Amino acid sequence: MAKSELADPALQPLLKVSGLEAWYGESHILHGVNFEVRPGEVVTLLGRNGAGKTTTLKSIMGIVEKRKGSVVFEGTETVGLPSNRIARLGMALCPEERAIFASLSVQENLMLPPEVKPGGLSIDRIFQLFPNLKERLQSPGTKLSGGEQQMLAIGRILRTGARLLLLDEPTEGLAPVIIQQIGRTIAELKKEGFTILLVEQNFRFAATVADRYYVMEHGNVIDSFANSELEANMDKLHDYLGV
Amino acid sequence: MLDLIGISSQALFGQLLLGLINGSFYALLSLGLAVIFGMLNIVNFAHGALYMTGAFCAWFMLNGLGINYWFALVLAPLVVGAFGVLIDRLMLQRLAGLDHLYGLLLTFGLALIIQGLFQNQFGSSGLPYAIPPQLTGGQHLGFMFLPNYRAWVIVFSLVVCLATWFAIEKTRLGAYLRAATENPAMVRAFGINVPLMVTLTYGFGVALAALAGVLAAPINQVRPQMGADFIIVVFAVVVIGGMGSIMGSIVTGFMLGLIEGLTKVFYPEASNTVVFVIMAIVLLIKPNGLFGRAT
After folding, report:
1. Is residue A5 included in any domain, yes or no?
2. pLDDT digit string (tens) for A91-134?
3. Which of A32, A179, B59, B215 is the most exposed place for a label (fewest CB within 10 A)?
4. Host domain of residue B263
5. Do A83 and B175 touch (CB under 8 A)?
6. Cβ of B182 and A113 within 8 Å?
7. pLDDT, tens digit (0-9, with 9 covering 90-100), for B233-284
8. Taking 50 as the threshold, does the pLDDT of residue B109 lie above it?
């Protein structure tokens, strides 16, 4: 029985991070991070500022180049690959700072990431998720509001066919109504079969979308629990996050 | 009417034409510098030497290999561009992320070495390069005589400049370039091979310089110093237009060529300094250049 479970690809992790260490220059940021994300899951990394959540995403994506350990995506070891090759395997990052290009129009920003796999969302579907973008196509990327920039930053990676989305604090600094819209979008994306690794400080938001949580501290994963165990872990969580 | 203020129309239009010719070279060279600066963040001091190398390449193709002007117009930029790719792969890439000063020193040193090698081999006097037979002669326009070759240089430079502008501002490849200029790490994380793009961009900028060199060969004599004389003005053009601005370098190149020509007619004493006077004024009023974006 256990054997057939292992052979079932739906139960194999899509992303398996083991003993991941990373450095910014001389400073050692990640000290052996372990976690995994299974296909179709929404997994959230929680933790205080400076715990290493963003660095974890950037290391998985290969943007932080000085790294050790293992990050296996769909059976391929990615530590040692440059970020352009990692992206081609089918994952995409929506960074915390959103990284909308100022010298490109909204349309150019949206169309910029090349298709890495077949089966990305159509432009019409993206406009359905984010109707605001359609009206602003000709504006320069940075003339958008914060919420619209966030929608653009998420929208542009849905086109590419990447199945694992790394979303770094997509709700940071946004109005509650926009946060709700982003939450609904993440739920929609999960329904469409996307796998999402989310970084959040706002665990009340995370609780509306996540299946499981990992808690990070000082560059390590120190705890994990499922969404159903959230209430039971509330005291510990307040402790971890200092809220 | 012009004769009334003591200037013959022949002299005026003659200088305007010369201004446009120089403007064509300013535009082609500053365009290459702008593309390279935008993408590599390197002030390419070797640009003048590579322009000269393009001219010598055409001269050598004609006199050594019997390759005519038209083929040289394509081949010389390819050869010199490939040399640029080597420079980037072997040297410039090692400077990525370091202070501007290192790139500047490296390319300045390269310029001196390349120029010295040519001077050692060919001396400092010029070598003649014949105007291609299809473009000899000229047109009498009534108010002036327009040599065919010069008309060709102006039209062809304009076409190359506008095609480059279109490729960078209006195409998907251009969008990659502009995006990578802003945030190379992010563009790379979308799956684009940014280091390869950087190398090819340097090769392209260098090829533009070599193309200008081939165009210049039949007008100016082919000499080791031809780039060094020119490049100082070209840097002033880049500063006036705004570092890294594509349309800025094209418009400013042609405009300053014309202004220089006009100065030669109306106040010849200032013709060598007018570009630098304009540069000083522009820097006082708009420190980012006429077309530059505030940073």
Report:
1. no
2. 999 999 999 998 899 999 999 999 999 989 999 999 999 998 88
3. A32
4. 9-98+135-285
5. no
6. no
7. 898 888 888 877 888 889 999 999 999 888 888 888 888 888 899 889 988 9
8. yes
For residue A178, what is the domain's CATH number? 3.40.50.300
Q: Which of A113, A213, A149 is nearest to B186 (CA)?
A: A113
Q: What does DSSP assign to residue A120? A: P
Interface of A with B (CB under 8 A): 61-63, 82-88, 92-93, 95, 99, 101-104, 108, 111-114, 116, 157, 160
CA distance B172 to chain A (A): 8
Residue B118: inside a domain:
no
Tell me how close the Cα of A136 comes to any Cα of chain B, in angstroms. Answer: 18
Mind giving me the DSSP string for A131-153?
HHHHHTTTSBGGGS-HHHHHHHH
* Among chain A residues, CA nearest to B194: A84
In a domain, A55, yes or no: yes
Q: Is B45:B87 a contact under the CB 8 Å cutoff?
A: no
Residue A113 with chain B: CB contacts under 8 Å: 190-191
Distance CA A117, CA A108 (A): 20
Residue A6 lies in a domain: no
**Quick check: B182 and A101 CB within 8 A?**
yes
The residue type found at A99 is A
Domain membership of residue A8 (yes or no) is no
Q: How far is B278 from chain A (nearest CA, A)?
A: 28
Would you state the structure tokens that stand for residue A206, as one six-digit string?
Answer: 């995370």
B181-236 pLDDT per residue, tens: 889 999 999 999 999 999 999 999 999 999 999 999 999 888 998 888 788 889 88
Q: How many domains does chain A have?
A: 1
**Candidate from B179, B189, B194 with C-beta closest to A61:** B189
| Domain annotation covers residue B110 | no
Which among A63, A88, A103 is the top mutation candidate for probing chain B, defined by the most B β-carbons within 10 Å of its own β-carbon? Answer: A103
Domain-embedded: residue B84: yes
Check: CB of residue A198 under 8 Å from CB of residue A210. yes
Query: How would residue B4 be classed by pLDDT, with cut points 50, 70 and 90?
Result: low
pTM of the model: 0.85
Q: What are phi and psi of A78, to 5 degrees?
A: -105, -15
How many domains does the structure of chain B reveal?
1
Does residue B254 sit within a domain? yes
At B117, list the tokens.
């090698």
Look up the domain containing A51 and give its range: 14-241
Cβ-based contacts of A104 with chain B (< 8 Å): 175, 178-179
More confident residue, A34 or A233: A34
Q: Which residues pair with A76 in a beta bridge?
A: A73
